[in-house]
Amino acid sequence: MRPRGQRGQIKQHGSNWLFVYYLNGKRVHEVLGPVNVYPNRNPEHIREIFSSKINGLLRTANAKVPNAAMMDGLLTLGQYVEQVYWKRCEDRQQLQGANHMEPSTIHGYQKIYNKHVAGADIAKLQINQVTTKDAQDWLDSLPQNLSHKTHLRARAFLSGVFTAALQSNVITGTNPMPATKAGGMSKGRKISELTPRERKIHESNNHAYDHAEIALMLEKLSEPARTVVAVAAFTGLTRSEIPALKWEDYKDGEIFVSRKKWRHHIGAPKTEAREAGVPVAPLLQEILAKYKTNKQFPAVEGDWIFYGQKEKKPIDMDNLSRRDIPQHINSAWHGWHAYRRGLGTRLSDMASLTGESQGVGASDMLERFPLGCCGNGPRSDWARRFLMDVWRRSRHPCNQSRSICFSESIPAS
After folding, report:
1. What's the rounded Cα separation, in Å, for the pair 112 and 185?
2. Hey, is 266 helix, strand or coil?
3. 110 class by beta-carbon count within 10 Å (0-12 exposed, 13-18 middle, 19+ buried)
4. What are the average pLDDT values for consecutive 10-residue runs of the chain, which has 413 residues?
5. CA distance 214 to 343
6. Listed residue (183, 181, 162, 159) closest to 171, CA to CA
7. 126 and 75 Cβ atoms separated by less than 8 Å
8. Tell me: the pLDDT tens digits for 85-116?
């Protein structure tokens, strides 16, 4: 049980107000003032009047009582993380500016702790007795077939824990982590050594959707997946920004990012630069206009553009990518970032071709070339024709029932 410093007691004794407390184990009475001068019958009001004098007396009386920081220093590292550090992280979610901590960051820390720290020998050590050697022994005990970056993230997490302990005076001296060296594989494993799931993730991390793939998705997907894909492909917005969009964010031919969503948390954009307007291509304007008039997706409370049908809350992008998209594109799914990577690649190529690669931002290039660059070759020519056909169909409702079918298959890259 955590020791608590005494608060003392206010009493009326005869014609005086007294402050009663214990000093070195002995009961002490201190006269505060006459009752006739301070006739208030509420002892707490008397405490407020003489707060300066009372605090001085209690400071001496409580000098030897362990404070919260001293008691936290007696916790093991694991206990400190679970009882103190997580609460500190949750409090930082409410802060603004540089001290703010994102829910996704905390989730990442918890994964590191549960997988690499909880149950390890270092977690059983008293936090104020952990040395640099203890920290290095822990790093050396981590599986060395993990990547060097994984080791660095684990090291950074514990460094943050000890930094928080230093800032709260739970430990004194220096942080034991900076002098340690992270291990792990610096070059990573070979492709042949990866599991099927790891190989698929590796391929997705390098894939960039081209216009041919986007055109097929716009043709085959149903709503709301079709419009979500169009927004991702032609604006480059992230998987956290798209579900948090409201109709009020779309105005004057631009989309302004005002918030982002991670799981069930809605927060502010990561940086001020994210809040800048993103030009909306004419094709995307047509797709959004058609989606807005779709009776299956009427306006809902909160004014969300994309929402789940049951709870009418911002759409879950993971559910969309698992349930609604792969089955229509022969499982050729490479993740949401592949849209952003593809758009960036095409705009970069266009900037190089036009000689404007220096000093021209992505928003400027989007405004000049709203669909990006399709590249050269038969696959790109097919993509241009396919996209323009999709565009024409969105502009003319009478053509909506016509299916797009090319006699030739999609040309190879």
Report:
1. 18
2. strand
3. middle
4. 70 91 89 88 85 84 69 88 93 85 92 95 94 96 90 96 92 92 80 74 78 81 89 88 92 89 85 82 87 88 89 88 78 80 71 52 48 47 54 48 37 45
5. 11
6. 162
7. yes
8. 999 999 998 888 788 888 999 999 999 999 99
Report the alpha-carbon distance of residue 242 to residue 224 in Å, rounded.
12
Q: What is the DSSP letter of 19?
A: E
Contact present, 143 and 67 (Cβ < 8 Å): no
d(CA 164, CA 368): 48
pTM: predicted TM-score of the whole model, two decimal places = 0.65
User: Could you tell me the two tokens for 295?
Assistant: 């009776």
Q: Distance between CA atoms of 358 and 408, rounded to whole angstroms?
A: 39
Contacts of 40 (CB under 8 A, 6+ apart): 46, 49
**Separation CA 169–CA 84 (nearest Å):** 13
Phi, psi of 58 (to 5 degrees): -70, -30
The whole-angstrom separation of Cα 279 and Cα 252 is 9
Peptide bond into 43 cis (omega under 30): no
Residue 347 identity: L
For residue 32, give the 3-state DSSP assignment.
Answer: strand
Tokens of 50: 């003489």
Closest-CA residue to 218 (of 392, 69, 337)? 392
Element (H, E) at 27: strand 26-34
What is the b/e burial string over 239-250, where b = at least 16 CB atoms within 10 angstroms of the residue's CB?
A: bbbbbbbeeebb
Kindly report, residue by residue over 186-233, the tens digit of the pLDDT: 766 677 777 777 777 777 777 888 877 888 888 888 888 889 999 998
Residue 156 is inside which H or E element, if any?
helix 148-167
